[in-house]
Design brief:
The structure is a single chain. The chain contains 2 helices and 8 strands; from the N terminus they run E-E-H-E-E-E-E-H-E-E. By secondary structure, the chain is α+β, with helices and mostly antiparallel strands. The chain has one domain: Hepatocyte Growth Factor. A 4-stranded antiparallel sheet has the order 2-4-3-6, with helices on one face. Strand 7 and strand 8 form a beta hairpin.
Length: about 100
């Protein structure tokens, strides 16, 4: 979900990682943290904190269409439970395929 902020609010964060180069890398960071279920990646076109990956417990308090969220990409840890169990290090690409 582009230009969307999820998991906003007190106590919902479970970490952040600086200098994350791609949205796929941000998802991979989320996969490393058991409490993480969603992420927000600030792309180079984000207002501030460029290339920062925010790890979130849930997607509560979604915000979309706010100019503060331009350049932010949010998404789930995995697209479904079965995929998450069988992922074996592959990351879904932006077009929905599996990137090598």
């Amino acid at each position: 979900m582009e230009n969307v902020s999820v998991g906003r609010g007190s106590g919902n964060g479970c970490g952040s990682v600086d200098n994350v180069q791609t949205v796929e890398d941000c998802r991979a960071e989320c996969m490393k943290v058991p409490e993480c279920n969603f992420f927000i990646w600030n792309s180079p076109s984000a207002r501030k904190q460029h290339l920062k990956c925010f790890l979130k417990r849930n997607d509560n308090n979604k915000r979309q269409g706010d100019r503060r969220d331009i350049g932010r990409i949010s998404g789930p840890k995995t697209c479904d439970v079965e995929e998450g169990q069988n992922l074996d290090g592959d990351i879904e690409s932006e077009d929905g395929g599996i990137a090598d």
